[in-house]
Amino acid sequence: MKLVTIEDVRAAADRIRPHVVRTPLLSARWGDPERPLWIKPESLQPIGAFKVRGAFNAVGAVKDRASDAVAYSSGNHAQAVAYAAAAFGLRAHIVMPKETPNIKIQATRDLGARVVLSEAGQREAVAAEVLAETAGAMIPPFDHPDVIAGQGTIGIEIAEDLPSVRTVLIPVSGGGLASGIGTAIRALCPQAKVFGVEPELAADTAAGLRAGHRVDWSIEDRNRTIADGLRSQPSELTFAHLQRVLDGVITVSEDEIRSAVRELAYRGRLVAEPSGAVALAGYRRGGTPPGETAVILSGGNIEPQMLRQILAEPVPG
After folding, report:
1. Catalytic, out of 43, 179, 259, 298
2. Could you say which of 1, 8, 61, 81 is the most buried, measured as most Cβ atoms within 10 Å of its Cβ?
3. Is 51 designated active site?
């Protein structure tokens, strides 16, 4: 199996540079003194999440030989592919599970994509049917070298902005984001530790790394978490990357995720969806090495009603 290299990530950075935001690395002065906290707010991307990076790299690679882009996603990758396809003049067909938050479904449609809703656990199969109908190009949410390389450009930016970084905390689900960032950090900041963070209710990556092979959690189990963007499982490709680049996986509770959403809003003035807040929740869980710590705020596409509910909850202690 050929894994993504730092050269692949650098090539992706060149390809996507005109289309994405180079997000700042923000100093969070309220962090722990022994672990200075820095936040990488990918919620500031045009579609509100990091997924735009991998989408532009992958769609850009096929734009001259395909007229249609097909994807399956719980939401952020859907919007990213729709956005990238529109920029390159391709038609987008996006398969989304029926339980996807309405804000993400409507946002994908607003970007000009045709949305096809599927039953839980059936999005890949439905997307294969759509692909056969269109003869387009499949842009999967994480199981693709170009997608992984695109997400890895975040790691290049962290290395440039904070070369002294000692710890990087990354949300992990399908594993494309952690695979890409981990590849870049390993190459450019070899002194740094890289940790994935995932919900306890969807902790299949942590279980798989302990076992030394991928493990399967049912979609019913994974759908319990509020972090709807972290309900996927790693592919063979991403799991191989995660085995190489991660120093460990931190799992966090639903209450810790909700607390991190509040902290980002009240202390950082940043809107985060639950999936985007898990890295901060992992930081708060503790146990990571001392030194400069970067956490990835991966997305901010949260239902307004959910945001109001979480912000209204009492702060423990």
Report:
1. 298
2. 81
3. yes
